[in-house]
Amino acid sequence: MVIPVEEGFDFISSGSSIRYLIKYTLWQAKDLNSKASGLCRRTLDWVIFDTPPSIHSDTIAIASSSQIPILITTPEPTAIADAYGLIKVMNSEEGMKEFFLIVNKVSSEEEGKKVYESIRLVCQKFTTTEPKYAGSIKYNPKLIKNIIGQNPFNDELIKDLTRILNRLSLVQAKPKVSFWERLLAKLKRGG
Predict the structure, then answer these.
(1) Are 178 and 37 in contact (CB under 8 A)?
(2) Which residue ranges form the domains of the chain, and what is each CATH number?
(3) DSSP secondary-structure letter at 23?
């Protein structure tokens, strides 16, 4: 179900897991692909999936099926290690070479760049990829309160997000196989 959030921005909940898709019959999978692709062609310029922060098979399937994989991390050591681990798995198991990195909850753009640089150096040494820096988002102690009030976007966050979007390569060649077909194939392969 498509839920309008504000003009030009809709939300589609995946429920608790996309893993149920592998149980679809061939006909159901083709029907889902047709409906999802049709919806995207008609009304959506971009689809953003927010996946769990882990090296989970669903996360890998979604990220590796995406045209523009964006990883979000924070300055905490465990989050940095998780981001590197996900990049390493997607690089070695899926052959992915292009990733964008956003660093969330930073005190300054400089802190975000330092976190990115630490991940970039490790990736350069131990993988065949080098993530690209998309930007950082400053920590906002009022964010939880704003989310509860259903208004998470303030001027500072909008400024950070605009700067990030301007750095992303949003003009991409159309893939031969749709995102949905790639995702279903990966889920069936891993399931």
Answers:
(1) yes
(2) 68-171 (3.40.50.300)
(3) G
The overall longest dimension of the chain from CA atoms, in Å, is 51
Instruction: Write the pLDDT tens digit of every residue in 118-162.
Output: 999 999 999 999 899 999 988 877 777 766 776 666 677 777 777
List, for residues 1-23, the tens digit of each pLDDT value. Answer: 566 655 666 665 555 555 555 55
Instruction: Give the burial class of 117: count Cβ atoms within 10 A of its Cβ; 0-12 exposed, 13-18 middle, 19 or more buried.
Output: exposed
| DSSP at 19 | G
Position 16: which residue type?
A: S
Quickly list DSSP for 102-134. Answer: EEEEESSHHHHHHHHHHHHHHHHHHSS--PEEE
H helix runs in the chain, sequence order: 26-43, 57-65, 77-94, 109-126, 143-148, 155-167, 179-190
Q: Of 102, 99, 87, 169, whose CA–CA distance to 135 is shortest? A: 102
DSSP 45: S
* Per-residue CA distances from 151 to 36, 47, 107, 180 (Å): 28, 21, 22, 31
